[in-house]
Fold each of these.
Amino acid sequence: MSIAEIFETMEYGPAPESASPALRWLEERGRTFGHLIGGEWRDPSGGEYFDSTNPATNKPLARIAQGTPADVDAAVRAAREALPAWQALDGHARARYLYAIARHVQRHARLFAVLESLDNGKPIRESRDIDIPLVARHFYHHAGWAQLMDTELPGQVGVGVIGQIIPWNFPMLMLAWKIAPALAMGNTVVLKPAEFTSLTALLFAEVCRDAGLPPGVVNIITGDGRTGAALVEHPDVDKIAFTGSTDVGRIIRVATAGTGKKLSLELGGKSPFIVFDDADLESVVEGVVDAIWFNQGQVCCAGSRILAQEGIADRLVARLRERMETLRVGDPLDKGVDIGAIVAPVQLQKITELVNQGRDEGATMWQPSWSCPAEGCFYPPTLFTDVSPSSTIAQVEIFGPVVVLMTFRTPAEAVALANNTAFGLAASVWTESINLALDVAPKVLAGTVWVNSTNLFDAASGFGGYRESGFGREGGKEGLWEYVKPRWELEGKNGAAARREEKRGKPARAEKARGNGAGPVLPPIDRTAKLYIGGKQARPDSGYSMPVMGAGERVLGDVGLGNRKDVRNAVEAAHKARGWAKGTAHNRAQVIYYMAENLAARADEFARRIAQMTGDEAGAEREVEASIRRLYTYGAWADKYDGQVHATPLRNVTIAMNEPIGVVGVACPDTAPLLGFISAVIPAVAMGNAVVVVPSERWPLAATDFYQVLDTSDVPGGVVNIVTGKRDELAETLASHDDVDAVWYFGSAEGSTMVERLSAGNMKRTWVSYGRERDWYDAEQGEGREFLRQATQVKNIWVPYGE
Ligand code: NAI
Ligand code: MG
């Protein structure tokens, strides 16, 4: 027998990791757990408990408290009480706590890993070598951000009390992703683990106590979706961070709409795994193993859609089937096992049903010849071929060890197939041509793209979705923004404005205001300003117009009364102008400077117009001047809002690119008719978005006059589309439009609520003012990075190097 033959025939013996330390830990606590609230263990106020089970045996492990709204309330209060002292600590002190937590996690690393595998069913190799080391890394990394907060995020403060709801697929890792940045930025938290997997969070509660964390900074509440809903709805929570299904994400978006709660959502995916003909076949096969059989395929960014180029597809299928024969499914605590147990019977059933549906819809299913253990929740690795791109199994997140394979011919076809889903969480691209890889990566709509690799994560890199995979990032500097807000927002209405007026002495605006707005004497303008769509003036679909009143109740003119149809036309025109994003940033800068030049040439005309509307001549001149400056600001920024290269510890460069979001709907503030318009529109345009703008409803004429500036400044048609009319009506259409990717709304609290609620349809990003006024003249409030961040989304591209 040759050595090769021995290798072929060699059987694995079992290599079990001992469960005893974890079982002892459970035993010592009577296998019954309450909530951690304000540093103390509390029984559930409703007296209700449920079992957490081991999915490999279907036997119960412990009794877990079912959190009631009263429990949630107690936890939120504890977090609120702990907040001032925690926020008042300097970054260094918070860094020390986070560092201590990291040390404690490492000290109990094996206990965490075994407990995780028992409760969740994941192979011990993964919990031991991936999940828990990454948890420690996350706390270390964020200890550093706490230390650097003052210098790296100047002018920012923690958001407050954070409600965090996490899923069961990476219980401890998701906890770390939520808690570490929140604490680093000076927030306190109430976290609810998933009902299938609460145990490691409860062990973590003990770690917080042992690390000396002040009581109430971290509170852990257990329970099912009802407990989660109570946390979402609690009025004293300042932000919700959620990871889980898109359905629940949508419920949370609607429930938090208009409450002013900050929100980040990390939802599902159906991530493409794109294989080109020239890819290294053996690496691809191991890549697929990682992409879809890691964690039983219960991974939000699982590469669940293999897209193979025609020249390699047959060989790939053959090699995959061979490889699948050698995968081992079984006891999660066996160190030789590749695939453990599915988290719960209900998930096993969901997988089984979707696989049956795939077969019924005509796809070819393939599973290895061996069978899974009969006891417990096991499912074999499964490969579907002959899959049509629109079939259920090609579109729906299966969340199990099931992958579909489709073929393509050209790179363009690969991109089209890749983007043929509502999700946008991750993608991987396999080719030996770096050129091709880096050409495809930006074209795929996904928050993470792995080149010749997959499922790589690190605390230094952001992770999060495009489109219906949610918004917000976790990890990296980009993730910190989810847990801070500008300090000026704390200062009440127009905090900075009041300060500046004080400095100036007399409010400038009042200085030259004409008594009861008689305004400069000019003949009335007999003209109806049309809409501006696709670079052309367009009559409103309604055929109606509305009068614009100037100072002294004088009618200054009419503007078109835009409606739904006009908005839809404008969105279509904006989509056609998406080439704007593909041009160079240098070109966008030039166009914006050109706008500034052309506005300066007409400064008097614009000032007169503003004065007619507002009745404030000096203010009008100041506004035009400020608008020209603002254009310069974004001309400057257009080619300087750089991405980053993250220092992840693996052998690769992780490129964080700031990408435009797409089509952005903008409802402008009513005040500052020109400056408000410029301030809201130009940052979006500078970053490569196309916009549909609803200008000031009260004073739209400055915006309609601006058509001339757009026409003379080489702005391609469709990049800026302007629809005048009733702001809230038009914003409603924008917020519910599925081809609009983000909506910015500077208006009333009610309008803000409406926009947030309707955005849940396609999970578009929103940025609303809740009726809070900005001082548009103030550089901190009226321009800069906050606007650029809102105008972009970060894509992380992982490019490995070395052999
Ligand atoms: P889920 O979204 O219901 O659960 C996630 C978390 O949200 C849990 O902590 C749960 O208790 C909580 N929750 C449930 N309803 C809530 C509500 N109304 N308000 C607030 N919190 C609520 O996910 P589930 O039911 O466990 O799994 C169903 C499917 O969701 C899976 O088959 C998978 O397709 C997807 N999923 C995706 C995840 C991802 O990371 N993308 C993670 C977990 C599930
Ligand atoms: Mg469990």
Amino acid sequence: MRVPIIAGNWKMNKSVDESIELANAIIRGAYDVKNVDIVLCPPFTSLSDLSEMLADSDVSLGAQNCFWLNEGAYTGEIAPGMLKKAGCEYVILGHSERRAYFGETNETVNKRLIAALGEGLKPIVCVGEKLDEREANKTFDVVRDHVENGLKGVTKNDMENVTIAYEPVWAIGTGKNATPAQAQEVHAFIRELVGKIYDKAIADQLRIQYGGSVNPGNAESILKEKDVDGGLIGGASLKADSFLDIIKKAASAGK
Ligand code: 13P
């Protein structure tokens, strides 16, 4: 019922030329894939070139962040309207690297989310606990806090355009993925929570991606879980072969 969504978060990797080469290989390799939404999130500098390349394909474009105002004296920030005009359909918000290194809080993530939705972008909102929080049995408290406060003021209608990415911080870039059972447990918790905040219909249609050391070897078992509706892929999205392999596993997850 929910179409899986596989997004590549390229983070601060790939020059414009390298982005074009990688996107070309992905478009070619994914041309016959059905029933998976594919999103590429390159650095800002590659967005407009990729937007032209992706225009005639089924692959969508996303950015890795945006500000909450649409213009003004905010050196270094990018407005949601600019992303929309540059051809973006999606935008990643609240990634743990932004929370850890750039002072993002639930409050700033929420402001960015409301602004992005206002411009018709489809936000991918990242939530997830750190290792010490998991070890202190605080996973559900942290995820609840990220979801409840991150989504504040988002209407039911707007929720149709929101994807949540569960990314346990201890699994990002570490090669230590959550087990399928660990992912499913938190995904089910998020869906239930969204059901309480909104209603069952909104919760049922919500796509919840897993992110954190997803690779061709572990993708299938994670993507098969009932409440896992795709992946937000870092390292393995930087090579066409591994990203395409994960996309194909999502297509054959049989849900
Ligand atoms: P890795 O796949 O490299 O662990 O990164 C995950 C991530 O942060 C995606 O947003």
Amino acid sequence: MKFTLTEEHKLIQEAARNFAETELLPGIIERDDNQQFASDKVKVLGDLGFMGLMVDPKYGGAGMDTIAYVLAMEEISKIDASVSVTMSVNNSLVCWGLETYGNEEQKQKYLTPLAKGEKIGAFCLSEPEAGSDATSQKTTAEDKGDHYIINGTKNWITNGKSAGVYLVIAQTDAQKRHKGINAFIVESDSPGISLGPKENKLGIRSSETYSIMFADVKVPKENRIGEDGFGFKFAMKTLSGGRIGIAAKALGIASGAYELSVKYSKERKAFGAEIAKHQAIQFKLADMATQIEAARLMCFKAAWLKDQHQDYDQASSMAKLYSSEVAMATTVEAVQVHGGYGFVKDFHVERLMRDAKITQIYEGTSEIQKIVISRGVIKG
Ligand code: CAA
């Protein structure tokens, strides 16, 4: 067991930190206020290789492992959790899903531009009546021989407007329930696709979240991923890895708030001393540091299992469950450490507190993670 990072890991971590501090920090409060998607920043992220971090270089990726991905997600999320969700969905849901289960033609045509950051991907599973209960898909994909016709509505879709490629999960044969579900690669400019209004959110306000309507959208049969009926397993396997990305994102939100709290507590004076000298603040910092360290180790463990091709379903759910709770608890305490200043936007911790909440909800709520974990526990 080794607790040290390789030189390559340290370089990725440093590159992500530099990018976040120099490119993402300027203008972040305004982007959050105006719900402005940072398309120019995402483009640079792609040029630097962060949009296809784990993808094989032969498909335009950076060829890194999942540990590198966790490190990069933590650093980007410390500053900008809106940009990091775009990065996370593109890397671990869309690129990983295509690279692992797509055929060669699909990879050449769709994975390469996504891994290079020339296109952005979105993962379309959730529906108005199918969030946690993901097998209850109402969107249909009717088999018409050489093509499918997709009808239905997808909800809460990250990158909904800017994505060039959607991975869409839809029901082909309702009699077969989840075994009749398929996953499709759908080009976002296909006729019949329209968007609802942009969601006005509590947190990650500069990320794009849209409903997407599909009305008689024609998708060629060669755009189905895997065998007929593989779509639900595709979604579940892909989400298992996605949850490592969201866990790392939650870790970054927590560690960002913690670092700001340490800095502030050494500068701010009260009762004749820096507040870091008061035990009331010291104990908060100690709790934050301990929980963040545990969350980080859980993220690394899940990433390591994935890199070793071992079962990581339970570990990724544990990492997401714990890290998202640490993100929420840490950011609430970070606002408290900052006092009145924490309640205003200039000090960043109120934004991190708002951003933390979604990590307990998307890519499977905390309650869904407990279902996955407890099933693993009982199965043994
Ligand atoms: N790997 C492979 N197969 C899996 C699997 C996994 N990790 N998990 C489940 N399956 C398979 C099961 O084996 C079963 O197949 P068989 O019948 O052939 O054995 C099938 O899937 C159905 O599974 P269950 O019987 O367990 O289904 P369920 O309805 O009881 O529960 C669930 C499944 C775990 C609750 C699932 O519905 C779930 O994960 N829900 C949460 C959905 C979610 O995470 N949504 C996130 C939206 S995407 C998003 O947020 C992206 C974004 O934009 C940020």
